[in-house]
Amino acid sequence: MSERASESRDVTPVLITEAAPSYDEQFAARKRKYMLMMGLRFPCLILAGIFYHTWWLALGFIVLSVPLPWMAVLIANDGPPRKSEKMSGYQREAKAIESRSHQVIDGG
What we know:
Elements (H helix, E strand, L loop, with lengths): L1 H7 L14 H28 L4 H11 L2 H10 L31
Helix pairs in contact: 2-3, 2-4
């Protein structure tokens, strides 16, 4: 019975830390996004050539292909958002410079 229980058990690891993905994993993901976006530019230009009789469709494909390199570079160079770090410094009670009260002099 214990053999069956161990066979049916899920063996995927459980994430127990809040560690960010490694630099290599982040770089590979950004590289895939860059290659995908740059790979879309060429088909857009080909489709613009195919649909040159329908000028508005050809123009749409050309307009779509123009910002793709710029967006691909921005996405490829972008890193993951920074996590907000909480300061765990020593907190002390604020004390007044003088502990005694002072008399207020009214000028009137």
